[in-house]
Amino acid sequence: QVLMVESGGGLVQAGGSLRLSCAASGRTFRYNAMGWFRQAPGKEREFVAAITWSGGSAYYADSGKGRFTVSRDNAKTTVYLQMNNLKTEDTAVYYCAASIRSMATMADQYDYWGQGTQVTVSS
Predict the structure, then answer these.
(1) b/e map of 5-43 (b: 16 or more CB within 10 Å)?
(2) Which of 37, 51, 16, 20 is nearest to 92 (CA)?
(3) Helix (H) or strand (E) holding 39
(4) Mean pLDDT of the region 17-44
(5) CB 16, CB 9: distance < 8 Å
(6) Rounded distance, CA 6 to CA 101, Å?
(7) What are the residues whose beta carbons fall under 8 Å from the beta carbon of 79, sequence distance 6 or more?
(8) Residue 62 above 80 pLDDT?
(9) Taking Cα atoms as reference points, which of 68, 62, 59, 44 lies closest to residue 105?
(10) Residue 34 clears pLDDT 70, i.e. is over it
């Protein structure tokens, strides 16, 4: 059984920062992509960022470019999302996910999901 647990969400003022973490257990994710998605109330789940197993390649949605940084620690099977200069429109539940593919940017390409962590950005 694969278990993915996010942490680090919370309430922050606009312009502030948060660092989300996602710890994966139950199997190794060698050569597999890990990603972050978010879902705001009344909206569909959307891609935020993804990173290859080596960490050599990362992809970002336009909304997070220049503000978000995805990274991973394979020794700890943990993926991180550093979010800076947060905006009120970043408010959402953030989900981490793991794919059996080497890279994936669409939700249906991911096989394992965490339960989500709430990020609320106040003005």
Answers:
(1) ebebbeebeeeeebebbbbbeeeebeebbbbbbbeeeee
(2) 37
(3) strand 34-39
(4) 90
(5) no
(6) 21
(7) 21, 22, 24, 34, 35, 36, 51, 70, 71, 72, 73, 96
(8) yes
(9) 59
(10) yes
